[in-house]
Structure formats: structure tokens, C-alpha cells
Amino acid sequence: MTREKAIQCMEEYFGENKRYIEHTHKVLAVAEQILDAESIDDTFVSDVVVLSTIFHDIGIPEAEKKYNSSEAEYQEKEGGPIARELLTGLEVRPDILERACYIVRHHHTIEKVDGIDFQVLWEADFVVNIDEKNITVEKGEEQKAIDENFITTTGTKLISGMF
């Protein structure tokens, strides 16, 4: 798999925006932690998780340029085509490319989470966004947030420890 090349590609794309690069590295670390702890050893799933995680926020710069906003809908709209172009350049296997692009295109839409690969990214991004204070959960709503967003034992433990 082209993990290191994908990371380099993401870092080059984000350029001087260290915040997005650091966020992506954190989400990737949590996603890989979940994959490992949950004993998900399916190569296809692992490759999709890693690549979709590396490129999950790739649409932010273009969204900010086009819409003067990094709102979720714009990230998803712009991220899919950019991820496709970058993954194509990395010569990613077509089935992995399609699945990773689907996840990037919908990574802020919980109703689109349709497999463990997407779920792992969802949980990892949620954990990091809570840690970075990009999202907040109201006092007393913690269990509801967990129940609505987490299914893996590892992700549930990680987020529970943060509340």
C-alpha cells in the first residue's frame, strides 16, 4: 500500500497549513489504533481506512477558496474529486480508490456510514475533533453522543475517557 506516499501527497497538498496536517496525523493515529485493537486485519478495509483518513479533509482548502467556508457540506463536495485525483496519481487499486472516495465525499454525514471502514474513520475523527475542541458535547449528553456515534469497543473506550 502507498501509505507513506499518500501522507507525503496530503502534506504537500495542505502546504503551509500545519493545522490540517497535524489534525490528519492525529486522526490517522487513532484510526490505526482502532484497527489494531479491534483486530481488523482485512487488507482491503485497512487500506481504505488509511487512505480515506489521510484524505478525509482534503477538500477544506478548495471549500475555503470557493465558498469562503470549511463547512461540512463544502468539504464533502470538494474533497471527493480532489481525493480521486490524488489517489489516481498514487495508482491506488480501483476498488480501494472508489471506497475511499465515497468515504471522503460523505465523512461528515453519519447516515452514510455503511461499513466498518467508514465507522473507524468516523470514530477517529470524532475523538480528535473532541480533543481539539472542534466539536463539543453538552454536559449530560455524553452517553447519547457515544451511543449515536460509536460501535467499536476501542473507539467507545477512547471517547468515554475524554468525557
Please give a structural write-up.
- The structure is a single chain.
- This protein is 72% helix and 0% strand.
- It has helices at residues 3-14, 18-37, 43-54, 60-67, 72-89, 94-106, 116-131, 142-149, 153-162.
- It is mainly alpha-helical and 163 residues long.
- The protein is built from 9 helices and no strands.
- It has a single domain (3-162), classed as Hypothetical protein af1432, CATH 1.10.3210.
- Helix 1 (3-14) runs parallel beside helix 3 (43-54), helix 2 runs antiparallel to helix 3 (43-54) and helix 3 (43-54) crosses helix 6.
Care to count the β-strands? 0
CATH topology: Hypothetical protein af1432
- Structural domains: how many: 1
Assign a percent range to the helix content: over 70%
Cα gyration radius (Å): 15 Å
Described by strand count, sense and barrel closure, the largest sheet is:
none
Give the averaged pLDDT, no decimals: 96
Shape: globular
Helix tally equals 9
Low-confidence stretches: none
Strand content: under 5%
What is the string of helix and strand elements?
Answer: HHHHHHHHH
Structural class: mainly alpha
Distance between the termini: 35 Å
Q: What is the fourth-level CATH superfamily?
A: Hypothetical protein af1432
User: What is the top-level CATH class?
Assistant: Mainly Alpha
Summarize this structure as a short list of keywords or feature phrases.
163 residues; 9 helices; mainly alpha; Hypothetical protein af1432
